[in-house]
Amino acid sequence: MSTRRKARRPQSRAGRPRLLSDEVEARLVNASRTGIAVELAAEMAGISRTSFLRWMAQGRAEIEAREAGEEPDAEAEEYAALYEKVRTARAHAASRAMANIRRVADGGFVTKVTTRRFRDSVTGEIVEETVEDRTSPDWRADAWYLERQHREHYGKDAAVAIEITGLGGPAGDDEQPIDLSALAERLDKTLYAVEYPPELEDRSVVDAKVVDP
């Protein structure tokens, strides 16, 4: 026996117009396509958050019932259609947002284009030169993605498991708990050594600069 909830009863002849009109549906879908919160999508459509969530719940129940092999419920058709449209719209919004995050992480998109004209000193001809300023890769966008999409491994609330076993071999049975404070101090010293080689400390190198590979 199906446990899905029935759609609300149709309004009586003397009642108010149907709340889920074509205009309200269009507003909900268009708002969802931007990726805004449910409360704001409902507000833009002129309905309550409760009504929106109830319609979505009814639509989801109808879709799941059909997928389970049950006969379609004609009274729930409009809610099933709304649910599918809103779900697709929000998926497009998430995809677009993720593409922008990837662009920021990878860098390289143009932020400024400068064009100048000058006379070549050798040929005397007028030369036009275009220079593009591009963004650098930003690791923070990758960190944001990992923290939210792989929370069990990279989330702020994820448990941290650290194992130091020489060259990566199996840990011994008598391995002692790791002092995280001491480990952090060692890492800090190691990173300092990478950034400032010993040659700079003993003054054997008087000048140096970092060159991108």
What is the topological layout?
Elements: H1 22-34, H2 38-45, H3 49-67, H4 77-106, E1 110-119, E2 126-134, H5 139-149, H6 151-154, H7 180-195, H8 198-201
Antiparallel strand pairs: 1-2
Helix pairs in contact: 1-2, 1-4, 2-3, 3-4, 4-5
The level of helicity is 40-55%
Q: Report the β-strand fraction as a percent range.
A: 5-15%
User: Span between N and C termini?
Assistant: 66 Å
How do the strands line up in the largest sheet?
1-2
The overall pLDDT, averaged over residues, is 75
Gross geometry: flat
Spatial extent as radius of gyration: 30 Å
- Specify the biggest β-sheet: 2 strands, antiparallel
Low-pLDDT sequence parts: 5-17, 160-172, 192-213
DSSP strand tally: 2
Alpha-beta classification: mainly alpha
| Number of helices, counting only DSSP H or I runs of 4 residues or more | 8
Structure description:
The chain contains eight helices and two strands, in the order ααααββαααα. The chain has 213 residues and is mainly alpha-helical. Strands 1-2 form a two-stranded antiparallel ribbon. Helix 1 runs parallel beside helix 4 (77-106) and helix 2 (38-45) crosses helix 3 (49-67). The chain starts with 21 loop residues before the first helix and ends in a 12-residue tail after the last helix.
